[in-house]
Design a protein that fits this description.
single chain; about 375 residues; alpha/beta; 5-stranded parallel sheet; 14 helices; about 15% strand
Length: about 375
């Protein structure tokens, strides 16, 4: 049997085993079958970096395709409305005997309507969104007649322009909720979206979308996600080694792939058995990679006080008492509590019992300690 490394530690790459997401996939599958009235027909996946949101989107697209649905996958970066309009027009062109799309330098032309892909003003966005609404209405009608539908997946919602993402929500509210067209949406975002795009009175449709927390996997599921790909390659892993590997991942799907990949790589002969020493070596390399790929971005997004709060937590070897953090910062407990809530909302730390917090990922403590050392040199 081939013994190539079964793990794939790349963002957005489907793992050898998509563990722990069966219920979510089943719920969305039920929604597609039920129609626009189902609460999960428009859904947002919320999770920190490395939680596997993009992989779940890929799995949902595969599910929809197997059912004969059309899928349209985009990220939310600008120009969102222009790209969706272009993609919708191309899909429609393939489903009906319409004139071929005529391209212009500035964008696309469909049915005599010119579309600029990069609008410069709010009024341009509104105009293009009207074109998108008309296209999706026609597309939805055609697909309904064929007994199928369209699944739109939008990744990286946080990267979108506020007015564009909300305008798209208005379009979808019209074509899906009001017209009852078979056009479903699954979007993916970081937790901060609750305080940005989803905040305020003009995001009502997106606020009403179902939410799924794409969080950490439990111990049993993490163990399966590591051990099953290994056994499928005809290899084995020592029980204590597996326990150590599971603990090192903190249940994050991306870290599972990193630990698995580098542990396999560290083993001279996985078929003869992966050892605890192999895991120790693999975890060290995985934590180093995680710091560069995930923690660096997380740190860059934090405010100065957020960083001080996190640095104060690194004094402890395990969970931190909020009152101790406040003392180290020289502030009141209520003031420290504001930043506690901010960091929990961002997925950086978790509540660890009444009055206590801990890092979401155990590797973060060592990495942030390194930032303190960098500041002192």
């Amino acid at each position: 049997m081939a013994v190539g490394n079964p793990f794939v530690p790349s963002f957005g790459t489907s793992p050898p085993l998509l563990a722990g997401r069966d219920d979510l996939l089943a719920d969305i599958g039920d929604a597609l079958a039920a129609g626009p009235g189902h609460p999960d027909y428009t859904t947002l996946l919320i999770g920190v970096r490395g939680s596997g949101k993009t992989v779940v989107l890929d799995a949902l697209e595969d599910l929809a395709n197997r059912r004969g649905w059309v899928t349209l996958a985009e990220d939310a970066s600008p120009p969102l409305i222009g790209r969706l309009t272009k993609a919708a027009s191309e899909l429609l062109d393939g489903l009906e005997d319409a004139p071929r799309i005529r391209r212009r330098v500035s964008g696309v032309r469909f049915a005599g309507v010119g579309v600029d892909l990069e609008p410069e003003t709010g009024s341009d966005i509104s105009s293009i969104s009207l074109d998108l609404r008309r296209l999706l209405s026609r597309l939805g009608g055609l697909l309904a007649n064929k007994g199928t539908g369209l699944l739109i997946t939008l990744d990286e919602l946080n990267s979108g322009k506020l007015e564009e993402v909300r305008e798209f929500g208005n379009v979808l509210q019209h074509v899906t909720r009001r017209e009852q067209n078979p056009i479903a949406l699954v979007g993916a975002a970081l937790p901060q979206i609750e305080d940005t795009i989803l905040a305020g009175p003009t995001a009502t449709f997106l606020q009403r979308c179902s939410r799924y927390d794409i969080g950490r996997l439990d111990t049993a599921t993490t163990s399966l996600a590591l051990s099953e790909p290994i056994s499928q390659r005809g290899a084995t892993i020592d029980r204590q080694a597996l326990v150590a590997a599971v603990e090192a991942t903190s249940g994050y799907p991306f870290m599972i792939q990193l630990v698995g990949f580098h542990t396999w790589k560290a083993s001279r002969n996985p078929v003869a058995g992966i050892t605890t020493a192999d895991v120790t070596s693999g975890v060290a390399e995985a934590e180093d990679r995680l710091g560069r790929l995930v923690f660096t971005h997380m740190w860059g997004e934090r405010s100065a006080v957020d960083k001080k709060f996190l640095l104060a937590m690194t004094v402890d070897e395990g969970r931190s008492r909020l009152t101790s953090i406040a003392e180290r910062l020289g502030v009141g407990t209520n003031y420290a509590g504001v930043y506690r809530r901010r960091l929990i909302s961002a997925g950086v730390i978790v509540s660890a019992g009444r009055g206590f917090v801990d890092f979401s990922h155990r590797a973060a403590r060592r990495w942030i300690r390194g930032k303190r050392q960098d500041d002192q040199t």
